[in-house]
Structures are given as structure tokens and as C-alpha cells.
Amino acid sequence: MISPMTTARPQQCYDHRLRELVHRTGDLTIATDLGVPPSTARGWLGTAPTVVVSLEVADLTELELRQEVLTLRRRVQKLAALLRLALVLLRVSGFTLSGERLLDGSDKLRILRAIDQARAGILSLADCYGNRLYRQSRRIRSE
Asked: Measured between alpha carbons, how far is 64 from 14 in angstroms, rounded to an integer?
């Protein structure tokens, strides 16, 4: 007979800004004064801070904001390259949904939800970059 497992105590969750502050300053008392166990705070010293996407950028310096913009631009370039590759692979393989019946049930709902999310993202991109994309496509066609 298998004995039931005991549940572990819930793991504490600490604000990423506190972890980053302790890591940057090397001062454990900042965290321990707020009730963080010393062993946990010591762990924050050795590991690199985890990447957290946040809307709170008011406390960043101009240099830090520029670095974040560059990092995000590199990430967008990689994602755009992957998307271009996926689209080319689909075109070359002859994949099409025309004339095909979509699945019923939860799979169909997942597909339709993904289409709605993609459409919203594409429309917002089109608003931002529509003129630029139009000029590029005209230039490519004229070559």
C-alpha cells in the first residue's frame, strides 16, 4: 500500500525588486529586516536575478532603459525571424486550411481563440507599422 504524501509548506514568494536590490548591493540586512530568512537572502547573492517583465520602469535610469530597449529589439528580431521561417515552411510544404473542415469541440475553440488573439496582435502591428510595411512591399515588387 502506498502511504499518502505529506504536503510541504507553501513556498514563499518575494518581490523581484527586493531580490534585485539584495543582489546588487550585497546587503543581506535589507531583506532580513523585512522578515526574509537569512539563508534565502544569501541565495539571492549568488544567482543572477531572474528576468521580470514589468510596467514599472519609472525608477530606471536612461541608460538602463536604453539597454532594455536594445534587449527587447533583439528578442523581437529573433521572434520575427522564427515567424518568417515558419511561414515559409508552411508555404513550401503546401499546407492550407482551405476546403478542410475544422475539428469539433475544444480543439476548434482553441484554434478560433488563437486566431482571434493573432488577429488582435496583427491589427495593432498594422496600425503601428502599416505605412512602413506598405513601402517595403512596394519596393520589393518593383525590384
From this structure: 23
Alpha-carbon torsion, ordered 61, 58, 65, 52, to 10 deg: 120
Q: Is the sign of the CA dihedral 29, 30, 33, 36 positive or negative?
A: negative
The one-letter amino acid at 3: S
Q: Which three cell numbers stand for residue 56?
A: 514599472
Contacts of 30 (CB under 8 A, 6+ apart): 18, 21, 22
Alpha helix ranges (H) inside the chain: 16-25, 29-32, 38-46, 62-93, 106-142
Tell me how far CA of residue 34 lies from CA of 14, 27, 31, in angstroms. Answer: 11, 13, 5
pLDDT per residue as tens, the chain (143 positions): 455 556 666 777 888 888 888 888 989 898 999 999 998 889 888 877 777 766 666 677 889 889 988 999 999 999 899 888 988 888 888 887 777 776 677 877 887 788 887 777 666 655 555 555 556 666 666 66
Task: Specify the pTM.
Answer: 0.38
Residues 32 and 50: their CA atoms lie apart, in Å, by 20
CA distance 134 to 119: 18
